[in-house]
Design a protein that fits this description.
seven-stranded mixed beta sheet; Metallo-beta-lactamase, Chain A; single chain; alpha/beta; about 290 residues; 14 strands; binds zinc ion
Amino acid sequence: MSLSVTLLGTGSPMPSPDRAGPATLISAGDGDDAEHYLVDAGRGVLMRLAALGLGAPNLTAVLITHLHSDHITDLNDVITTRWVMTFTETPLTIVGPVGTQAVVDHLLASLDPDIEYRIAHHEDLDHRPPVTVIEVTDGAIELPSGQGGGVTISCGQTDHKPVEPSVGFRFGREGASVVVAGDTVPCDGLDALCAGADALVHTAIRKDIIANVPVPRMQDTLDYHSSPEQAAQTAAKAGLATLILTHYVPPMPISGTEDDWRTLAAEHFAGTIELGDDLHRVEIHPR
Ligand SMILES: [Zn+2]
Ligand SMILES: [Zn+2]
């Protein structure tokens, strides 16, 4: 197996009983040698990982596209659970845009009472959660030695203004590559990241629906997200084989409306279009 994408959470800030918050897992390899990269850590991410038989200790690294709360809601859970469920010190690497270090520092500060309770209570736990943050802008990403190695990772700037900075990530292995865009409108940075890749995971909102919702705060979301049509245009421009849509706004009951989303995208992209419920998985093959 070269690379696979699992949509851990296909939801958005709008709570849904069926869809966890934004989170995507990129996996490579099998068994003990497998590498698992978590992109964004939305609501319920560890529940969805558990459904795959995986947990926070299995993550090779966590990568954050931007610091909107819905994409990092459960980062504290990942940090704490990794810390208390591993029995030798296992540093967690978190990669994200500039500003990520400050957010992680504040998160850890908010966890101070919990950290003190656990260190006091467990004789074999004598260290705080070991977390390394790598802030990135664009280009190749090197993880600390001993972490990863089976997957090449790079990033590029996306456009989710006024959320700034925001980045997308590209993962490559054995000739296959996939880009995870996060929230963005079409932009040069994303086009460059997608050039020559096989697949694109893109968040999407139905502008044709949201534009008719007479709530100013909903209307505000139109200008910094892509519609399925715009995500498809980005995929077509880069000549990709597969477009994987996620982060559905409004949250869709999958049966019945899935085809509407696919039809909108298919007007602009002739390749394979994937949509699904949480845990939908797509294998990425080199072309
Ligand atoms: Zn966002
Ligand atoms: Zn979002």
